[in-house]
Amino acid sequence: MIIGLTGGIATGKSTVTTYLESQYNLKTYDADTYARHAVLPGQPAFTAICERYGASVLTPDGQLNRAWLGNQVFSNTLERRWLEQLIHPLVRQQYEKIYQQFNTTDALVVFSIPLLFEAEMTDLVQQVWVVWCTTGQQYQRLMVRNSWTQRQCYDRINAQLPLSLKMLWADKLLDNSGKLPHLYQQIDFCMRELL
Fold this sequence. Notes:
Number of domains: 1
Radius of gyration: 17 Å
Largest sheet: 5 strands, parallel
Distance between the termini: 11 Å
CATH class: Alpha Beta
Mean pLDDT: 96
Low-confidence stretches: none
Shape: globular
Number of strands: 5
Order of helices and strands: EHEHHHHEEHHHEH
């Protein structure tokens, strides 16, 4: 069984995966890790990004300036789509390798993929869990966690499919709009059903 964990930005996906790892010893595979690896110096995606944006996209030590790039792509739909078309296939390749390892076993693993629906990776999971909170909470969390302006939060939240749609397509919903014990109880309930 492969669980596809998704949701909106700052809804609590990392909180859920941390709990699943610590309480249930589940192996989780995070799309953000693969996306970050894809843009390391020496990787083909890194070269393509540098060719498109020039020296502005680099930090003084030659790394990708993720904050600068984020501001470019999240304020321009065409640029964001270009980057996604570059990165999504690379992330998918990593998940396909892992899928081959686990799809014929009894193992229970988690694919944490923020853009599960947007990147069309639902075929790689057997069950979709969507963690959600209110839009106001997303803004609040992003402003505290990332020190982003309201505009930066808006651009990133609205770059993803609406949470309401993701929730419609979910097999399981995890409400993270309240206290953590309430979220953990929901995870425990879902796990009891599976196990």
